[in-house]
């Protein structure tokens, strides 16, 4: 059997807590199949030489980890600069936040070339290579330049925007052309596939051979949607663990006279945090029966803090939470509990279960795994309600959630109220349908479907 080689910028020790959909999902997928996981070590060498970095080899269960350090210059131009200062905002439709500094592209190319060199030295001829996310779009093209002929697939964890937004990236043609070095490209949703197809149709002279097949630059490429899932069984088992139970009981006792609404994510402008706090304010204003009772627990884990837009978001969020608490709080009730830290993964299911309502309201999101984890953690007899943004990839699958437009503050507040008031029978029915959906299309289904498609190319 061929060995699976996974390449991603961010790695996680599969046995430890990770905040970020990619690390969580890949950790679980690789635990199942074994293989090699290659990427950045997470270490920045202050006086390191750009384009160079030591490789560290480690074993974690059935997975061999190979990680590379980045010099300060590479980290700042490839990771902070091009990946998170250009591609991330543009792919999340935020042209206003993109910093098209011409210097960043040099670092992005250099690190992709360096990764290709280091990885090529570890490859076997019959390896199957699966590259992940926007940090590494040109990796296959670099590997092909070096003569690597292995099967190569690419999966984009974030959305692909419509052609006219993508075209704002000065290097868009080069990026999209680089995708044709892969044999298979996967996106999270049908909307992303449609954007790819429209881009290829309008911006290139490619032939569209079929719904999923494109020919350009002398290469045929398969493109398909593979919505990522979670490991439902693993997450349910985590919920039966002592740490999750302790968490649940602690929350239940502390908030026995309250109704909990919960938000959990990285502190990221794509997640719609200010809009959510504004909608929660309207909930308190428009439905005063919630005063003294409804409590929003907002966990926002630190992320990419040296990118300006993230620092600005933190300030805005802190000020919004402070003003809701100042305007509505009582000596014995604070409407918003805002925590700028991550929660240990083992405790997370207990927190989800204690909540009556989950607020997963990104302005744009590739998929959003928190929505799926929330459903997996619920008590089927007395489940909480999922309020989900129609702009999350998950909304294509999770039709039984209460779907909202997070830009529409008044209706989002109305939907929060509807969620808090929802009769038990309706909650159970919606939860049953959602649970079945996330079970059918879980992380194993995602991995298997992608790899089957890659092997079939
Ligand atoms: P993204 O990939 O943009 O971070 P996802 O919702 O797809 O968003 O994935 C986030 C993953 O990271 C989930 O598995 C979630 O449980 C975890 N996570 C996110 N924020 C936190 C947090 N504050 N504390 C603990 N885990 C978190
Ligand atoms: O899932 C999207 C994603 O950007 C991953 O690629 C990334 O690992 C995760 O979010 C967390 O972001 P970061 O790796 O920048 O901390």
Structural notes for this entry:
The chain is α/β, with parallel strands linked by helices and 457 residues long. The chain has 2 domains: 240 residues, Glycogen Phosphorylase B (Rossmann fold, 3-Layer(aba) Sandwich); 209 residues, 3-Layer(aba) Sandwich (Rossmann fold), CATH 3.40.50. It is 44% helix and 20% strand. A 10-stranded mixed sheet has the order 3-4-2-1-5-6-7-10-9-8, with helices on both faces. Strands 13-12-11-14-15-16 form a 6-stranded parallel sheet, sandwiched between helices. Helix 10 runs parallel beside helix 11. The longest helix has 21 residues. The two termini are 17 Å apart. Bound molecules: adenosine-5'-diphosphate and 6-O-phosphono-beta-D-fructofuranose. The site of adenosine-5'-diphosphate (ADP) has 18 residues, from helix 1, strand 11, strand 12 and helix 13. It comes from Hydrogenophaga aromaticivorans. Pathway: Glycan biosynthesis; trehalose biosynthesis. Its EC number is 2.4.1.15. Homotetramer. Keywords: Glycosyltransferase, Transferase.
